[in-house]
Amino acid sequence: MDEKPRKVLQLIDHDFEDLELWYPVLRLREAGLTVHLAGEKANEKYIGKYGVPALSDVSFNDVNADEYDALLVPGGWAPDKLRRFPAVLAIVRSMDEQKKPIGQICHAGWVLISAKILQGKKVTSTPGIRDDMENAGATWLDVPAVIDGHLVSSRRPPDLPEYMQAFLSVLKS
C-alpha cells in the first residue's frame, strides 16, 4: 500500500457470514494493513453462520473512529444485531462524515441504513434487502461491486474478489 501504517476496523457479532468477514480480513492483512475486529465486548469469541469463530479485539464503546482509516461491515445475520448498538451507528456516522472508506456486503447494508447515510447513494447488496436500501434513499444496482465516493458495496460471497479490489482501490486513493 504505502509507507503509512493503515488500520481497518471490521465490525462483528454472532452469525456473521464467515467468508464475508474472513476473506476481507485476510486480503487486507496480506496487503500489510492492520485489521481490528470490534464486537459488543473485547476479547469475546463470536461464531459465524457456518461455525467459524473470530475473537474481537475491541468493544464498540472503546472504538475511536479517528484511529482507523476504513471500516468494513460483514453480512450474514450479524448486521441485524449490529445496527441496534448506538456505538456502532456512531462509528459508521463518524467514518462517513470523515469520508473514510466504508465497505458493506450482503445484509451489511442494514447497518448503513440504520446509520442513515445512504440517501442519494448508489449501492448494491443481497437482493433480499433491495427494498430496504431503496427505501433508505439509495439507488440499488445488481452488480458485483459498487463504488460511490468512499462507500463500497457488494452483493454476496461469490462477489468477494470484485468487492475487495474495489475496496482496496478506494483505500489507496
From TrEMBL:
- What biological-process GO terms show up in the record? proteolysis
Q: Which residues form the signal peptide?
A: none
Q: Which CDD domains match?
A: GATase1_PfpI_like
- Residues forming the DJ-1/PfpI domain are 6-168
What the entry lists under PROSITE patterns is as follows: PEPTIDASE_C56_PFPI
Keywords of the record, alphabetical order, are: Hydrolase, Protease
UniProt KW ATP-binding keyword = no
**Does this entry carry the keyword Transit peptide?**
no
Q: Name one Pfam family in it.
A: DJ-1_PfpI
Q: Which Gene3D superfamilies match?
A: 3.40.50.880
Q: Which GO terms describe its molecular function?
A: peptidase activity
Similarity-based family: Belongs to the peptidase C56 family.
Name-wise, this protein is DJ-1/PfpI/YhbO family deglycase/protease
InterPro entries for this protein: C56_PfpI-like, Class_I_gatase-like, DJ-1/PfpI
